[in-house]
Amino acid sequence: MKTKLAGHLRSNTHKRAIVKENDNNVKILTSAFKNRIVTYMLLPSQKYVDIDDFFSEVKHNFVRLITEQLVKHRLVKINIELFGHYLLQTKEMVETKSFNTKNKVISSTTDLIDVYSQFLSEIKEKVSIFAENGSGWALEKILHLEVNVNKYNPIRASSFIPLPKQIANKKAVINVKNNNQYCFGWSVI
Fold first, then answer.
1. Which of 6, 57, 104, 128 has the fewest CB atoms within 10 Å, i.e. is most exposed?
2. Where do the DSSP E strands lie in 22-74?
3. How confident is the model at residue 1, as a pLDDT?
4. How many angstroms separate the CA atoms of 123 and 8, rounded?
């Protein structure tokens, strides 16, 4: 039981400092590497307890945000995390719990509405499993949705990288040592 709860017990203190605002309901929490990695916070305009209602409200901001990122980067990897206040009635405790999704690679041809629906399904399933496992926690209100956006570049050249010793000792892999960005070309030659 503790291992399942460990993923939900996150400290939210590192996310209190907002770097800058985009608009009233979308804020940038953190950014790194010249905005190639950005975390956005999508805030509701009112208090929500129903996940479907909340996701319905923030849907437009999500689609707009990802569309803007695709214009900048052409290919991104994203995931989301839903934060909510949960009440444990037996001990009269309130804690922030979060539920996240796996990363998805998004391109300009990706149907963002379909991806959003997949994210919603994944979050609802995790919330349901958390509630059904007898945790005793009840959702008091949804706080916000975080959208993590990473620039994705799957085909990027690199220079020589030494093999791990256990692979190199087997003498089964040819690892061409080079000093430029053409390692694939050298391996073909």
1. 6
2. 26-32, 37-42
3. 44
4. 12
What lies within 8 Å, CB to CB, of 100 at 6+ separation is: 7, 79, 80, 81, 82, 126
Residue 108 in tokens? 């300009």
- With 0-12 / 13-18 / 19 or more C-beta atoms within 10 angstroms meaning exposed / middle / buried, residue 91 is exposed
Amino acid in position 119: F
Residues 6+ apart with CB under 8 A from 25: 42, 43, 44, 45, 58, 61
Closest CA to 139 of 83, 95, 88, 86: 86
State yes or no: pLDDT of 39 exceeds 80. yes
Q: In this predicted model, what pLDDT tens digit does every residue of 141-183 receive, in sequence order?
A: 999 999 999 988 876 656 667 788 888 888 888 777 777 767 6
Q: What is the pTM (predicted TM-score) of this model?
A: 0.69
- Closest C-alpha to 134, from 81, 82, 90: 90
* Pairwise CA distance, residues 144 & 124, whole Å: 15
pLDDT of residue 148: 93
> Measuring CA to CA, which residue among 189, 5, 158 is closest to residue 95?
5
Phi/psi at 165 (5° precision): -55, -40
